Amino acid sequence: MNDPRALFDLSGKVACVTGASSGLGRQAALALARAGAKVVGVARRASALDSMCDEIGERAARVSADISDRSGIQALVEDIGAPFGAPDIVIHAAGLNTRQAADDVTHEGWDNTLAINLTAPFFLSQSLVPAMKAKGWGRIVNFASLQTTRAFPGGIAYGATKGAIGQLTRAMAESWSPFGITANAIGPGFFPTELTAAVFDDPDRAARNAAQTCLGRNGRMEDIEGPVLFLCSDASSYVTGQVLMVDGGFTAK
């Protein structure tokens, strides 16, 4: 009988994580490293990425870059592959939420939100897929949201991108899964990250959100690790085109 733990073993794999400087992206990077992967973190803040690399050690590297710059994608791909080789796994955890009400959305806010939340995950994946095809194995994990299916105040631009992420994930699966590349998404509920600071800075609001879940609590950072390892490993080899909500049952109620 095979050891079921081997299904989650990422030894020999290379993972790229955008948004690895903080929040769920950083937590995902740490989890992948503990499972044996070599990890390349991508974000704009070099000092925060250095902290991640220090915690992981020699199996981590960082690339400081602005993923919203479409003209720099090819150079970014080369930088990502330089430390350990072309990635087998890519997690798109970088995100932007301007929290502008519909009447106040600016052209700049809209364009920046789409560039980071939607455009970058597609074009970076597109550029990394050829190496995955050559290996016959790959994992793409996008970050969806409660707003993939729910409308929140001040979330029209963010929600539009996260709704699109659901369809992008399905379309990626249709296009690339025949080559051994699965494409799935994680939809986090409320976790205490920089992106949700406005929520957790208001204890009453945080408590109301917790009360809306089936579990009666908001997310803890470690809650993201199991789903990440599942979707990035052989444990999910027959799972593709799915959005896995990691929200304590918020969207079930």
From TrEMBL:
<feature type="domain" description="Ketoreductase">
    <location>
        <begin position="13"/>
        <end position="189"/>
    </location>
</feature>
<dbReference type="GO" id="GO:0008874">
    <property type="term" value="F:gluconate 5-dehydrogenase activity"/>
</dbReference>
<keyword id="KW-0560">Oxidoreductase</keyword>
<comment type="similarity">
    <text>Belongs to the short-chain dehydrogenases/reductases (SDR) family.</text>
</comment>
<dbReference type="InterPro" id="IPR002347">
    <property type="entry name" value="SDR_fam"/>
</dbReference>
<protein>
    <submittedName>
        <fullName>Gluconate 5-dehydrogenase</fullName>
        <ecNumber>1.1.1.69</ecNumber>
    </submittedName>
</protein>
<dbReference type="InterPro" id="IPR036291">
    <property type="entry name" value="NAD(P)-bd_dom_sf"/>
</dbReference>
<dbReference type="Pfam" id="PF13561">
    <property type="entry name" value="adh_short_C2"/>
</dbReference>
<dbReference type="InterPro" id="IPR020904">
    <property type="entry name" value="Sc_DH/Rdtase_CS"/>
</dbReference>
<dbReference type="InterPro" id="IPR057326">
    <property type="entry name" value="KR_dom"/>
</dbReference>
